[in-house]
Specification:
Elements: E1 2-8, E2 26-27, E3 30-31, H1 32-42, E4 48-53, H2 58-65, E5 68-70, E6 83-90, H3 95-103, E7 110-117, H4 125-136, E8 141-147, E9 154-155, E10 163-165, E11 173-175, E12 179-182, H5 183-196, H6 208-213, E13 219-222, H7 233-244
Parallel strand pairs: 1-4, 1-7, 4-6, 8-13
Antiparallel strand pairs: 2-3, 5-6, 7-12, 8-11, 8-12, 9-10
Helix pairs in contact: 3-5
The chain binds cytidine-5'-monophosphate.
């Protein structure tokens, strides 16, 4: 089946504190969004990439992701035929709205959609392929899940610091991206969420939770430590050290 990847990069990066959107911040000379696009293309399973960018920075994003990304050797200056075509769209006010805008741009031929965050620039091509393979094997919604090594507690809502639950760590997973979906199921989940959002303050933080809200099953495949999220400047430093040490 034809597979598209939605690469979300329309966040302001306010927690990161840079003058440009976080996805444009350089890691070893390459913007985070370009690292992520390159690994999506290298997976060999993606036919089209749609990048969501902040409206005010569309031109900058176009210059760093180009019109196509080579499958093998990184960013392409060459025409579409040389690699995976890249479309750009302005994101929305929330991550959910940004993904919705990207879904609206997909051609009818797309049957499988991967949703990936530019904030996870080093998620390996093998992880992308693993998620896509699980969707192709018949799972309508697939997420990478990594084991939890810390003890996790649940505290009260509204910042109440009292511990209200001690969940069993062995049954918890850290959810990463890319997440993979049957296209029709993801469209349905976003349409339902767009209706709910009218009276709900917070948008969902990922796409699989929107599918779960429909009562549909979400399947977990093994995650990858390299798919860690870059939130604060410290995370960028760690990514740089890992790349330089040849760990990633
Ligand atoms: O804010 P958070 O870290 O959860 O954002 C996750 C991803 O969603 C980031 O890659 C960010 O660029 C993207 N995003 C988006 N549109 C928004 C907000 C976030 O595409 N309005």
């Amino acid at each position: 089946p034809r597979t598209a990847a939605v690469l979300t990069a329309a966040g302001s990066g306010s927690r990161f504190g840079a003058a440009v959107p976080k996805a444009l911040v350089l890691l070893e000379g390459l913007p985070l969004v370009a690292h992520a696009a390159r690994r999506l293309a290298e997976s060999g399973v993606v036919d089209l990439i749609v990048v969501t960018a902040p409206e005010a920075f569309l031109a900058e994003f176009r210059s760093v992701v180009g019109r196509s990304v080579l499958r093998s050797s990184g960013l392409s200056e060459r025409p579409e035929s040389a690699g995976v075509p890249v479309l750009l769209t302005a994101g929305g006010a929330s991550r959910q709205a940004s993904v919705g805008a990207a879904l609206a741009m997909l051609p009818p031929s797309i049957e499988v959609v991967l949703v990936h965050d530019a904030a996870r620039p080093l998620a390996p091509a093998a992880l992308v392929a693993r998620v896509a393979a699980a969707v192709r094997a018949g799972h309508g919604a697939v997420i990478p899940g990594a084991a939890v090594t810390d003890t996790i507690v649940q505290v009260g809502s509204d910042g109440d610091p009292a511990v209200v639950a001690n969940p069993d760590r062995s049954a918890l997973r850290i959810v990463q991206t890319p997440q993979g979906f049957d296209r029709a199921l993801l469209d349905r989940a976003h349409a339902a969420a767009a209706h709910r959002a009218v009276d709900e303050a917070a948008a969902a933080t990922d796409d699989a939770s929107l599918v779960a809200a429909l009562g549909e099953q979400v399947h977990v495949v093994p995650g990858d430590p390299d798919a860690f999220k870059i939130t604060a400047p410290r995370d960028l430093e760690l990514a740089q050290l890992a790349l330089r040490a040849g760990l990633i």
